Amino acid sequence: MSGAPILSVEHLSMRFGGIVAVNDLSFDAERRKITALIGPNGAGKTTVFNCITGFYKPTSGAIRLTQDDGHVTRLERLNDFRIAKLARVARTFQNIRLFPGMTALENLMVAQHNALMRASGLTFLGLIGAPSWRSAERAAIDLARTWLDRIGLLDRADDAAGNLPYGDQRRLEIARAMCTQPALLCLDEPAAGLNARESAALSELLLSIRADQGTSILLIEHDMSVVMEISDHVVVMDHGVKIAEGTPKQIRDDPKVIAAYLGADEEEAIAVMESGT
Amino acid sequence: MSATPAAQTSRAPGAAFIFKKSLISALVALVLFSLMIGVRTEAGSDGQLTYWTRFGDLAAIVAAVFGGSIIIELLRQWWGPVETVRVVPAPVQSALSLAGRFVAPVLLVFTFLVPVLFYDERYILDLGILVLTYVMLGWGLNVVVGLAGLLDLGYVAFYAVGAYSYALLATNFGLSFWVCLPLAGILAAFWGVLLGFPVLRLRGDYLAIVTLAFGEIIRLVIINWQSLTGGPNGVTGIPRPTLFGIPLTPGDDGLAAMLGIEFSPTHRIVFLFYLILALALLTNWVTIRLRRLPIGRAWEALREDEVACRALGINTTTTKLTAFATGAMFGGFAGAFFATRQGFISPESFTFHESALVLAIVVLGGMGSQLGVALAALTMIGGFELFRGLDQYRMLVFGMAMVLLMIWRPRGLIGHRAPTVFLQRQQAISSDLVKEGHG
Asked: What CATH number is attached to the domain comprising A200?
């Protein structure tokens, strides 16, 4: 097993025309840890996510992903689906992107596409119903069933994803990302729109994913109760640059962070300070 | 939709609303038809312009529009689009699934029996072959439009490629139908991939326009490449299919002579009927199997949300290309069958009209539904023949039937989607949740 951080972002910059969304950002995400990326609205957090997951090509800088076996992948050189397929980076979206017309179970089956594609002999073995394909399909359904059970949606497995309540959709999206068996799970505001009880359940789920699967997690979050409770490491961004990083406790007491939130939005600053008490 | 809370709530305000809407429709009709119908112009005996007015006809048309829109609005309110409710209600759903379970087998058995029941009626057999050809084309296009959500207006191109592949291979190299059939499919699939590459980045309307152009390009190449395709004269003398080498002819080596029965030209028609039935069922079987395989789920996921697909590591490029290739391959098979059935093909058979007809079948059937497409093909092709007695009003009646059907069922005959895998119970998914795809 490699001791290097799973993800290291080095001097990452992203420009859209004249606008600098991310400017010379560097940070590491430790293996088997939960790293949170926080900052006021418009700080460039989602842009960083899109660079890491290949939806944007960074203007400059390097993003290194080190697998458990020490193999290093340069994410900025891969594009869209290859990051998820080869580097095993999975992500969720700020505005939920499930397949609404497919059932919860089908959503989790689609997530296992690449593994099932190999098992089905690029469709041909599957078409003739080869036994190896049948057993692979059963295994995939079992994995999906396990995840549905973990997020408490087993009895709604055959309901359309679009019919599920909002909180369930959030959890289903995380389960779908986990069904790709990722090395790094990137979550874009997983607690957005959740009530206090659902947020607590989410924290529990993320902690159990880290403990049981050993998946490293990188998350963007505004809900400071979630961030402070589960993060091992927090990176704070404002206006495209990193202004602080450290343990949740260090961040909570950092005057620069409080100033950034105060300058941007009073309510958020109060939320940051209050969540410490 | 304006008339959502149908029967229970909105009948009282409905009257004024309907009246207003119908009045507007009547006004539009008045403006539109005042010159088209109200005034008749003709060249007189010396070439001068003569005209006379037909206000009576104009009034009749405007009144018809007024009355018609009242009827349509009433239908819309009382009858309503059945699937405005978010979830298909349980009784409707169970009734539908029950009906669905019986309709398909009954239809299949009936289709198998058609040549027995109507052995002496050549017209019915020919119509059956025509309907089955469109069922097959519909099922083929359903892979591209219904499952993958890629709007393809140039499907006839693959039909043409299949037909010309068989026609040219058979007439030039003497290859038999059974050798040419897979070749035609492969060539069509190849062209499907070739079309797929440039349109990968396009979505929605743009994709539709490029595929439309592709269909026209294929037709124009066929017309102008005279030395190969014979241009507008087409290809003649295409060999008829054989029963694995045994020709269906009156000669000594024919099937009739071998079986020791009297030769009849109907034998060949019946053979063609079962041939296209087998091809269509093959298409259906493969599509149903594919839907339950990762590739089929990826197609549907692509229709639902392409960005999410990429985030899950699905190669959207190959997924789209395989959808195009699979759809095109079935189009190619159907084309080869068309060529062998007709014995003569020309570019006239492969106009945009065919693409539009097949697309209409898929949309009318309910995108993605195999049974829906089959029913729609039967309605469109069979229904069109049914109205033959109405002469020039045939199109009018047919168009009106289509409009009514689309008001009643805006998402096609069978609008709900059947999940491909389930843990406890399979339940249909309302069409409101299923995306139509965007490119």
From this structure: 3.40.50.300
